[in-house]
Amino acid sequence: MNVPKVLQSLPDSDAKILLRAGKVNNYARRDVLVHEGDIADSFHIVLDGRAAVRVTTPTGESAIVNILGRDDHFGEVSLIGLEDPRRTASIVALEPMRTLSIPAGIFRDLRERNPRLEQLVSAILARRVDELSAQLVEAMYDSLESRVLHRLIRLADTYTSSSGPITIPLTQDELSQLVGGARPTVNQILRRLVEEGVIGVGRGRIVIGDKLALTRRSA
Fold first, then answer.
1. How far apart, in Å, are the Cα atoms of 191 and each of 14, 36, 141?
2. Angle ∠(50,53,56) on CA atoms, nearest 5
3. Domain ranges of the chain
4. What's the rounded Cα separation, in Å, for the pair 214 and 219?
5. pTM, to two decimals
6. Given 3-state DSSP classes, what are the helix, strand and coil percentages for the chain, each rounded to the nearest 5?
7. What is the 3-state secondary structure (H, E, C) of the chain?
8. What is the rounded average pLDDT of the residues 150-157?
9. Angstrom distance (rounded) from CA 77 to CA 66
10. CATH-assigned architecture of domain 144-218
11. pLDDT in tens, 30-81
């Protein structure tokens, strides 16, 4: 197996230890990889496929807050060293996918012997904090239309193909959850983008025919 991007900063010997300790997991569409609230005892790296990050809202409903693709990862909380770490979200497969799960204990053992792994764990956590901070700033200060456009661009990157239109297999309700907006308002924004020829909308999918035009539209 090739060394996943997140582990490439490590010495080969340490990366090989983690890879040997890891387990490749195969999931079908709609499988739940981990459940919110479960004990967090492993770090997952996405090898293939895409998954939704779902959290429970204060009203008890489930909402999508992010989409993970190849080379993304989850389970960082298991690496912090908390006494009883718990999953902060459920991860649900949107299509057939594979992950590499590495027991958190292996990270802890290596961290005691090699400060490079301590640096890696710190970098992983810092990156996640940066992502969450950016999302918070976006939610507080960007208009809903700007959030929709930026999210569509990021989704286009996640679902990009070698050529031709990019199909994002999400419903308009799921997109509304991702951008933190009311569905009727998000639908109005999508309709305007359809009228402008920037995107197409079908049952359970959004199609981006010209990502460059979408990027220009968001500027």
1. 51, 34, 23
2. 155
3. 5-140, 144-218
4. 9
5. 0.85
6. 45, 25, 30
7. CCCCHHHCCCCHHHHHHHHHHCEEEEECCCCEEECCCCECCEEEEEEECCEEEEEECCCCCEEEEEEECCCCEECHHHHCCCCCCECCCEEEECCCEEEEEEEHHHHHHHHHHCHHHHHHHHHHHHHHHHHHHHHHHHHHHCCHHHHHHHHHHHHHHHCCCCCCCEEECCCHHHHHHHHCCCHHHHHHHHHHHHHCCCEEEECCEEEECCHHHHHHHHC
8. 92
9. 17
10. Orthogonal Bundle (1.10)
11. 999 999 999 999 999 999 999 999 999 888 888 899 999 999 999 998 988 7
Longest dimension (CA), the chain: 59
Residue 61, token pair as written in the block: 């409903």
Digit-coded pLDDT (tens) for 182-196: 999 999 999 999 998
CA 213/CA 149 separation, integer angstroms: 11
In the CATH scheme, what is the code of domain 5-140? Answer: 2.60.120.10
Helix or strand run (H / E) with residue 63: strand 62-68
Sheet of strand 199-202: strand arrangement: 166-168, 205-208, 199-202
Helix 144-158 to helix 172-179 angle (10° resolution) is 110
